[in-house]
Amino acid sequence: MDIRIENLTKAYGDFKAVDNMNLTVGDGQLVGLLGPSGCGKSTTLFMLAGLTEATTGRIFFGDKEVTKVAPEDRGIGLVFQNYALYPHMTVEDNIMFPLINRKVRKDAARQQAYEMAKLVQIENLLKRKPSELSGGQQQRVAIARALVKKPEVLLLDEPLSNLDAKLRVETREEIRRIQQEVGITTIFVTHDQEEAMSISDQIAVMKSGVVQQFDVPQSMYLNPCNRFVATFLGTPEINIIDVEVLGGTIKCGDVVLRTGVDVKNGTYKAGIRPESFTHRENDHKYSVNSVRMIGRDLLLHLDMAGRDVRAITHSGQSITTGDTVEFSVRESSIILFGSDDKVIGKF
Amino acid sequence: MEKKSMKGWLYLLPALIIITVFTLYPLIRAFSMSIMLDYDMIHNTFTGYGLENYQKVLSDKSFHKALGNTTIYAVVVVPCSIILSLLIAAMINGTKKTKGLFQTIYFLPYVTSVIAIGIVWSWIYNSRYGLLNSIISFFGFDPIEWLNKPKYALPALIIFAVWKSMAFNIMVFLAGLQTIPKEIYDAAKVDSTPRWRVFLRITVPGIAPMIVYSYIMGIISAFKVYNEVYSLYGGKAGPADSAITVVYYIWKKFYQSFKYGEAAAAAVILFFIILAFTMVQKLVRKFLSR
After folding, report:
1. pLDDT tens sequence across B145-183
2. Architecture of the domain whose range is B62-289
3. A vs B: CB pairs below 8 A
4. Do B206 and A102 touch (CB under 8 A)?
5. How far is B176 from chain A (nearest CA, A)?
């Protein structure tokens, strides 16, 4: 089932939590709503669920408009950030509950609950109470409960934020696997860009209630549409530096970064990802302010005409603070931003 | 080590003194008084020890009546009050803007003096000018002589007591309801749960500890009911003692008949009844929490 959001707005007094949002999600896609706290991503999700009423705009599931439809009639499965399992029921009763409410016969409901538990691999925990489960297991129960009524849309609110780092990576793969197996259109909310990029078919980056960019992860990372998206995606964060363009040459202070570009003369903000620095003999010499080992890579802080920039290089090299390194910036990886923070081009 | 425990005892001392003087000593005194024969409190004389006081009390028709009334009172008032309080608390909790207002209104009876409330209720029950009878006659029924006919005395007391005890219960339940996460109700909504099932499967289990607490406190205070009787009937126990309760019986034996030994014996019997109830409830609670 595809989802269409048209001019959706949610206002609380003068404050617009979601501002004139438009988005189309294809059937069977896994889409991440990504953004910082308070960007309106959860509000959007709850409007899709029907728990929050839209101020204006329309929501379509397939050809059917659901803007005014009650949550229970929308055919959605919803997974809450804190799972919201029914604490006094066993895992089995939790999963069966939506079916019992739909007057499914008890033995049939039990059978379906078992199948769903098997899908999320908790079939050995059916007789336990939620309080006896780990965070990851509770999460699986919540997903099973959301999926058991065979919804056409699955909505997940910050599904991984209550899990520890290792479990988070495992569980996100698990969510992807389950989503692929069931083939259900899924929207999930997250503030973790890595999480969004690793499992989503497409990502919608939001800021102040407005969708900044809606794209596949790779292209979002490589071709951000503005400074916010460029900054929000990627760790370590992209370097934003002041540059000057004069006669086709991009310079930062006295450091020549690129020549022969077709951009009007003037000062700009430029974004350079840390991994875009590459070693090249006889290029500009940067002095190393500090070195940090981050596993596979070394994170260097370099001095670029008095500014501190981050660069990543292989950890095999022996570079220490105070050294001088020769680096150039890879082709078409200097992103120039205009005065409105929109991207002018990549050079 | 010695010093440390000394310090600990020192901290406990104020509480221990108070408990000893006002709880432990009276308890022991009541026990000893209950086996003293022909005890005269003013001259502190008695003729010997024995169980005659218990015999007298246990064979006293008035005590049977008091025990019966108290039991009926406890068995009716406590569950009725809890069920009504639960429904009202759930309703108040559902309203957003008027929550604070209703919370205050329902809590008022708790902070108001029982005597003052008793006066208001004796007016409500008044057979000629009372509010209750004007409502009843509005619906075409004959007025009831609530406070004057023995057969209505206990029902009148029970209605009054249910109303009065609801204040505390509603307060406890509201506090309990606020501990149930909103998301669970949202989840239930998405799962298309009918309202009655939400109430029975989510709300009630969610505040089960508070219900058990209210129940135990309710039963204990029901067995000690006295204020309500005294204030509703202006110092009497209803027409022809028809609304007499165990504590009222004790009070009467002590202050009106000057039968100190019998009063103490009745008090000891009540003590064991409450003790037994509390133990049974502890067991039930243990069983339920498994």
Report:
1. 888 888 888 888 899 889 888 888 998 999 899 889 999
2. Orthogonal Bundle (1.10)
3. 58
4. no
5. 15
